[in-house]
UniProtKB/TrEMBL annotation, chain B:
The lineage of its organism: Bacteria, Bacillati, Actinomycetota, Actinomycetes, Micrococcales. Pfam families: Sdh_cyt (PF01127). The chain crosses the membrane at residues 28-51, 71-95, 107-130. Keywords: Heme, Iron, Membrane, Metal-binding, Transmembrane, Transmembrane helix. This is Succinate dehydrogenase hydrophobic membrane anchor subunit. It is found in: Membrane. It comes from the Bacteria.
Length: 138, 149
């Protein structure tokens, strides 16, 4: 802590502010990172889907790379990112448009995390079984 | 140092009264498209990853089956347009936040615009020029309905 001109103490780092380092900030950081990640995936995804216009062989070759176990884990991460971005997006909309939204933003963040956990528990096992049960062909 | 802090809600510039407020419509668009995208993308992921063998079942014949149905053509077209514009506009916000040099910003914003337009045009053409039964392709790679044509 440093003594400022007013003679009071100023913390070097603004610890314990309402926003910084709390749910509000982290929800925003995650929303931003997931948004960028999905955007770049979508660019690649439109290009890989466009292989259907080249030939069935070309499309099948590209899509088969999505079926190996490492990509399976990547797809799980992608879906995790989308599910978070989607649920937190609804939270942002509620903060903006619902009269009590700002008051409950912190509760809603934990609701988003809860819904995310439930959705991923439904999704991940099933997807990973699909990916790993046929490892090595068949 | 005496600094006057303005009332947080005081407008710092004169209110604009003429012309379309694009930033406002962008803001509304992010929210409206977000709600629709949630339904479209969750549906897309459910049908492609959770039904049947999920990702293992995706191949040319699978896409052929889906895009022979106008329902999925429209679904994917909406998803393509809404997601690319939503994502592109979101990326614009981020570039505006971090790119401090005017030239860097212009280059990045231009790149986003080019990418969004190119992907929308390409994706739309792919959906509507798609031929599920291309001549001369091995029948076992094609949707089963091709045999009867
Ligand atoms: C699944 C449904 C989705 C919902 C509900 C949703 C919702 C939102 C909302 C409400 C915002 C905030 C806009 C603002 O602050 O004015 C936003 C930002 C953003 N979204 Fe989405 N979105 C969805 C899907 C997507 C997709 C598919 C992409 C990528 C293609 C994407 C990329 C972004 C980006 C890059 C931002 C900007 C983030 C920032 O400024 O920090 N979103 N989204
Ligand atoms: C790993 C997850 C995903 C898989 C396996 C997958 C698979 C596919 C497949 C097989 C198609 C062909 C047509 C159809 O089935 O409807 C397709 C098209 C499409 N997908 Fe996905 N998808 C995934 C994730 C996503 C996500 C997260 C988005 C949105 C951000 C998305 C957006 C699209 C769009 C816009 C098209 C149409 C492309 C075009 O017009 O050429 N997909 N996807």
């Amino acid at each position: 802590m440093a003594i400022n001109t007013a003679g009071t103490m100023t913390p070097k780092r603004p610890a314990g502010t309402l926003y910084r380092g709390r749910e509000g900030m982290w929800s925003w950081v995650l929303h931003r990172i997931t948004g960028v990640a999905i955007f770049f995936f979508l660019l690649v995804h439109i290009l890989d889907t466009s292989m259907v216009r080249i030939s069935p062989e070309a499309y099948n070759a590209v899509i088969s790379t999505y079926q190996n176990p490492i990509m399976g884990l990547g797809e799980t991460a992608l879906v995790a990112a989308i599910v978070y971005h989607a649920f937190n997006g609804i939270r942002i909309i509620l903060i903006d448009l619902w009269s009590k939204g700002a008051k409950y933003q912190r509760v809603m963040f934990w609701v988003v995390i809860g819904l995310w956990v439930v959705t991923m528990l439904g999704f991940a096992p099933r997807h990973l079984i699909n990916v790993f049960s046929h490892v090595g062909g068949a | 140092m005496a600094t006057t802090i303005e009332s947080p809600r005081a407008p710092h510039t004169a209110r604009r009264s003429r012309g379309v407020n694009w930033e406002k419509w962008g803001w509304i668009y992010m929210r409206a498209s977000g709600v629709v995208l949630l339904v479209l993308i969750f549906g897309h992921l459910f049908v492609n990853l959770l039904v049947g063998d999920g990702i293992k079942a995706i191949d040319f014949a699978f896409v052929g089956g889906k895009w022979s149905d106008p329902f999925w053509q429209v679904w994917d077209t909406l998803m393509l347009w809404l997601a690319m514009i939503h994502g592109g506009n979101g990326m614009r916000t981020i570039v505006n936040d971090y790119a401090t040099k005017a030239t860097t910003r212009k280059v990045l914003l231009g790149a986003i615009l080019v990418a969004v337009v190119a992907m929308i045009v390409l994706g739309t053409l792919v959906i509507y020029t798609f031929d599920p039964c291309p001549a001369g392709s091995p029948a076992d790679l094609l949707p089963s309905f091709c045999a009867t044509r």
